[in-house]
Design brief:
Length: 118
């Protein structure tokens, strides 16, 4: 399993969520975050804004779906045809185990299910 963390512009988040839903990936966690990228924030006149508002979207998918989901996010989050500074970043990392609290089930990266004894 793979966790995809997408940092996107707030005005693009609805488009990204809709694209993921249409692509068959409805399970997403969304958080409002602030930060800065390589451009070190935004300078307007004498004022530097180094905490730019963004949205962080988290989703876990099967390994074979990673490329499709990444391309879906890029297409929906990109500004214009070529994109622009501040469009965001996508971070991809492995997930070893997933626990479903309501059922007490554990799913491993290999897709094996096991009940957690409490």
């Amino acid at each position: 399993m793979i966790m995809i963390r997408s940092v996107v512009r707030p005005e693009k988040v609805d488009a990204v969520l809709a694209a993921l839903m249409d692509a068959g990936f409805p399970a997403v966690t969304k958080m409002s975050v602030v930060g800065r990228g390589k451009q070190r924030g935004l300078k307007i006149g004498d004022v530097t804004y180094d905490e730019i508002p963004k949205e962080l979207l988290l989703t876990v998918v099967k390994d074979q779906d990673k490329d499709y989901v990444v391309k879906t996010v890029i297409k929906a989050a990109r500004t214009g045809d070529k994109g622009a500074f501040g469009d965001g970043k996508i971070f991809v990392s492995g997930v070893d185990e997933v626990y479903t609290i309501s059922s007490g089930m554990k799913e491993s990266g290999a897709g094996e299910m096991e009940e957690v004894k409490i």
